[in-house]
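ugh finaly. both done.
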Amino acid sequence: MPQATVFAATIAGVEALPVEVQADVTSGLPGFGIVGLADTAVLEARDRVRSALRAAGFEFPNARVLVNLAPAPLRKHGTGFDLPIALAILTATRQIPAGLTAGSSAVGELALDGSVRSVAGTLAYALAAARCGHDLIGPGGALAAARAVEGLTCHRLDVLQELRTGFSALPVVAHYCSGGFTEPDLLDVAGHAGARRVLEVAAAGGHNLLMVGPPGSGKTLLARRLPGILPQLDDAERLASALVHSVAGLDEAPLLAGRRPFRAPHHTCSVAGLAGGGSPPRPGEMSLAHNGVLFLDELAEFSPSALQTLRQPMEDGSLTLVRAEGRVRYPARFTLVAAMNPCPCGFLGDPDRTCDCADGIIRRYNTRVGGPLMDRMDLVVRVDRIDPDLLLGAEQGESSSVVRERVLATREFACRRGGLSSGLSGAALLDACRLTGATSRLFTETARRHHFSGRAVTRVLRVARTLADMDAEKRVSAAHLAEAVGYRGWENR
């Protein structure tokens, strides 16, 4: 009874779970069956595998072929099972030696001519293979990301015909090498000294930021330059962020090179688009921004239901989707940067143009965002339009590289102190602030006067701690607290 097993994996959330592809070829009426809770894409592999093997010069057995995907209760999906199914059948029928695939996992979609194509989630498959102590077999285009996994040996297989020459046709691919990239520079921003200061504070402490101002004032211009003053991703962050992009079928090369993700969904984005979903579930924009920046332009134009999905991930750094198929957890630790007009026409508070919106319309416009979400915004800054004379004749400000050096110095100081303030709370935050008795009493009075919630008090202290880190001060002063309170602009109106 010819049998063979080849290892594969299936995606669940952002993790690939190991699967054994067991092929059994027996005498009887010719047939090709796949069992093991496979979805439609996996079941369609029967036709692709049969045609690909014949096109590559192999024989598809004129017998009863049964492929079992174990463990059976685990739902399998995707076209990445094509290659392991084909290898299992070829091994079971002795058309390739069993040692060729021993100790290896395989992933790839087969074309009808026998060529092997890449599938989404290759980095997840690579991590699963490394955890199991396996090598990874797949097409060359997919293995670029897999080379970022330390200790993993990758074997390239672009067409099934290459199996005829044996193991030498599967060369070991060199380790992944990161490339360079460029970010938009703050040199392009004229004026906006206050907004640039707030942008630096947000980068130094990982704080959420809301910019409010009339159309064309430069809110989007500033937001797109935040990644340029952030430090590059470290090794752990690179893999974590690239893994989400790989599962979503996006290019993970910039993230593996250290570039922080910047996601800017349109305001028509749905709840599933922000949080993730579908069948099978796929990560949304919040997860794609993991370890980076999520920019929501025209914040008040997003649907209220979509905006409310931001609340829990902003606190926890992750989100869990519960569906009929089970629970899926996605990482979602991001810096939220939002921009909005102060009113529907956009000119409320503008010194040169008059707002024509009625008071009721303005109130309804602002309440679309909701108090609970606004309570989670650490920094709120007004961004007004720049005078044309200043815009055309202004001297160039600091470049992103200069600001980034200060941000790096601030973060190094914070790490020596105990970590970024955005991750502190409770007793740890109070210990980090080291408030004197007089400063503590002053802040308590200010919090009562402005009716700060408990969350608002915590976030003001976090921002104040970041401001102290920027000054390399071990103790938060009254001046730091006053500046942090000033950034709660929407509560101070």
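ok and the 2nd:
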Amino acid sequence: MKTSVIFSTYNSPDWMEKVLWGFFAQTVRDFEIVIADDGSRDDTRDRIARLSADSALPIKHVWQPDEGFQKSRILNKAIAASQGDYLIFTDGDCIPREDFVAEHLRHAEENCYLSGGYFKLPLDISKDITKEDVTSQRVFSADWLRQQGMSIGVNGLKLSSHGLVGDLLNYMPIKASWNGHNSSCYKKWAIAVNGFDENMQYGGQDAEFGRRLRHSGVKAKRIRYSTICVHLDHGRGYVTPEMQANSERIRRNTRRLKLKWTERGLDQYIYPDGTPQSAKEKN
């Protein structure tokens, strides 16, 4: 099974680099990374080029011009560019634990999508994380985070759970939605529902995609205690009330009509058999 990891980024090269350190430290190595870049400046492109030169993993940089928050569009383009049969999605502000990819593959099921978890970090710790903190995996240690001044509550279970313990905790009665920071499915299902709805900007576009998967018969499977990433803090100055209101309207419509397909989605960039359309036709 070929695997593609897809994560989005926008003008945050320092955060993106920390995320890549996490993927460079994975216990499995047979996957590609597809960076879905929603219009970042040249410093992001330069950083990716430098990191790619030293990486044993193949890295693809899929970029589009900056036209405001267009995450759904760039994710669809990244899906079209991916070569994996299985797609793992996260964000450019989420550092994956070393078993992140391995656990997604261990739990993968033909007719399921996987819903993982994350652990939020404050801004000061997010800024101070070094490459050694990631490669040594101490950034996933509750004790280390306490030493940095962070209060660790019950969510610390996410950091410490592995293997059988994580599998048991996954049965806790918590809703399994599609989370942009930590979810996966077979590529054929993303194609079947036509990817992400490009009429949506910020506000639940990930959950709406997951709902169309469920309407298509794909079951949601919780793995929030088996796969973990730490979420780096940042502002969201790009969010507007109008964006959120429009996204909520689309989400309600998808729920009410039990929609399986979006009319403005992945088929702009990929044929039904998964073959990408030529860039010249769509740019």
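summary for the 2nd one i guess: The chain has one domain: 3-266.
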